[in-house]
Specification:
Elements (H helix, E strand, L loop, with lengths): L7 E4 L9 E5 L6 E4 L9 E5 L6 E4 L9 E2 L1
Parallel strand pairs: 1-3, 2-4, 3-5, 4-6
């Protein structure tokens, strides 16, 4: 799905614990990405690509704890 007007993503604590990978791509209006603590702990990869307006990323403690590949 395409969300070209999406401006922010805010995710709470301890979410998406069974998500094997996470990708944010081709979101030209996204300027804010916030993840609470202990989210995506079992994910193996995390991708951020083509986010031309992104100006702020905040990740809580222990989020993406098991990720071995960031790109």
């Amino acid at each position: 799905h395409s969300l070209p007007s999406l401006q922010s993503i805010i995710l709470g604590n301890s979410g998406f614990l069974r998500t094997p990978s996470f990708s944010l791509t081709d979101l030209p209006s996204l300027h804010l990405f916030i993840v609470g603590s202990s989210a995506f702990n079992n994910s193996q990869s995390f991708v951020m690509r083509n986010l031309t307006s992104l100006s702020s990323v905040k990740m809580g403690s222990r989020s993406f704890y098991s990720v071995s590949s960031f790109s």
